[in-house]
Amino acid sequence: MARSGIAAARVLHSLDARVTITDKKPLGQLAEQVQALGQGEIKVEAGGHPDRIFVEAELIVLSPGVPKIPQVLAARRHGVPVISELELGWLLSDAPFVGITGTNGKSTVTTLVGLMLKKAGKKVLVAGNIGNALTETPDLLHGQDWIVVELSSFQLEDIDTFRPRVATVLNITQDHLDRYKDITEYGEAKARIFENQHRDDVLVLNFDDPLVRALASRALSRVVPFSRSEQHESGAYIENGQLVVRGETVCGIDEIRIKGVHNLENAMAASAAALAAGADRASVAAVLREFPGLEHRLEFVREKDGVTYINDSKGTNVGAVMKSVEGFTRPVILIAGGLDKGSDFSPLAGLFKERVKLLILIGKAAGTMAGALGGSTETVFAKTLTDAVQLAAARATRGDVVLLSPACASFDMFKDFEDRGRQ
Asked: What's the rounded mean pLDDT across residues 61-70?
């Protein structure tokens, strides 16, 4: 009974469906969620998922991240349609979609594309894995020029007919390996974003990422590559310090307000997607010059006594932390750790040896991370994030960067990554 499940239940009830919502938590822990369902006749089954409900259902809508429980598998064997909340929103909408997925950068690119299209005078709804669930505002699913959605692998697992006219895959690096058996299975979930596209649709792909680049050969739609290292005339690239899309300059890369190599990639992807959706170059360039970045994504917090403090709480996987640390030429004191998602932390060892002055580990994954990194840099442990920040401040000297970029989920110590970042 999370946000998207409640939204789906409410919109289906408004369409006169008989709705039952289930959750494994006991009813006493769901008071806030039950209140959010409103005064309608939505039945709540708490404390588990009764088998009979699933096999008797005419439609099952899964919230993102619900594990592959036996009840759902049994329902599928009985021929019951099982879809995601994303698919439900798609079926209820009359607007074309821009879909954005990838391990890292999704929220930034989704926000940028939405702003670029709005700047170009388009009527746009931004939803999905960012802010509101797609079905949370059903009235807004109609009359839009575009609906721009951020999509996680969880949301894409249970689509059926979902077809974004413009789809983007930003990158595929190890993440959520507590759910997927390996990165191949994880990547296949991401790849579902373009499986229903037609020849006149557009697929924006990161050609600097080998796993993403390999998807191009499977696409029926028109592939628009983006790359920092190569120049593809049909895509987005860098030439003489300029961001160029399909042969025409958008702006100088030094004009882009959000900094860092990863944000240059985000800017290229967003520009290519927005232009494919009908934005003009002036609007795209204006947003790139104005957009300050999102909270908890390499967010500048303060500078004190010559030490810069950066909040990258959204850096919840190895790939994100690698990009974050690579973006600094100054010595880094890194605060990392949290709830392990099955990641292999060893690829960070070489980078940490070169760039990280001190590693401060917190959370349940601290021991695992320390073991995987093999003493690549000085490593200490802290019980809380507050203790870690105080320790970092005590050890930092003028010119250092204190960076919170955990490489882990936050749920062992915090409500979510936003709660972690604010603290």
From this structure: 85
